[in-house]
Amino acid sequence: MNRHPRQAFRPQDFFLTPQPVAQVPGTMDFREAVSVMVGQMLETAHAAGLDRYEVAARASRLTGQHVSKAMLDGYTAPSRQTFNIPLWLAPVLEVVCNSADLAGWQADTIGGQLLLGADTLDAEIGRLERQRASSMKRLRALRNLSERSGG
């Protein structure tokens, strides 16, 4: 697996520029990594009191589609390379399992960063602070130019 599951946001991370994984032929087959992450997500849910039967039942209710424990077992088996979790089900399992590991991993993989909850507010505050600083710098430059030209 090229990337680690999503870790907690740290303020110093905001200043790092995320980069996508290198586009090297034959290195972007993520089926095994996805299977392992889904397995870890289900293990964490199990530790919190949700077994795979309950996860499957909740996912079925939320989607209106049949999701079985056997399907979940297949999604977590790296040996079943043709049976990865479908994209439409990934966010549902994350909601049911109270996880964002898959979404965070996907964002990291394509060169982004997933921010949730208060982290999104912190990021927006930082963006606006940078915008304000840039505007103030531009305003000072314009005032200086105006003063020099006799305005």
Task: Provide the helix percentage.
Answer: 55-70%
Question: What fraction of residues sit in β-strands?
Answer: under 5%
In round numbers, the mean pLDDT is: 86
Shape: elongated
Discrete helix count: 6
User: How many strand units?
Assistant: 0
Oligomer: single chain
Number of structural units classed as domains: 2
Distance between the termini: 62 Å
Low-confidence stretches: 1-6
* Structure classification: mainly alpha
Task: Specify the biggest β-sheet.
Answer: none
What is the H/E string? HHHHHH
Radius of gyration: 22 Å
Please provide a brief summary of the model.
The protein is mostly helical and 151 residues long.
Key phrases:
151 residues, mainly alpha, 2 domains, 56% helix, 0% strand, disordered N terminus
General description of the model:
- The chain is an all-alpha fold.
- It has 2 domains: 22-114, no CATH class; 116-151.
- It is 56% helix and 0% strand.
- It contains 6 helices and no strands.
- Helix 1 (31-47) runs parallel beside helix 4 (90-97), helix 2 packs across helix 3 (69-75) and helix 2 packs across helix 4.
- The longest helix has 31 residues, at 118-148.
- It is elongated.
- The N and C termini lie far apart (62 Å).
- Residues 1-6 have low confidence and may be disordered.
- It comes from Stenotrophomonas lactitubi.
- This is Transcriptional regulator.
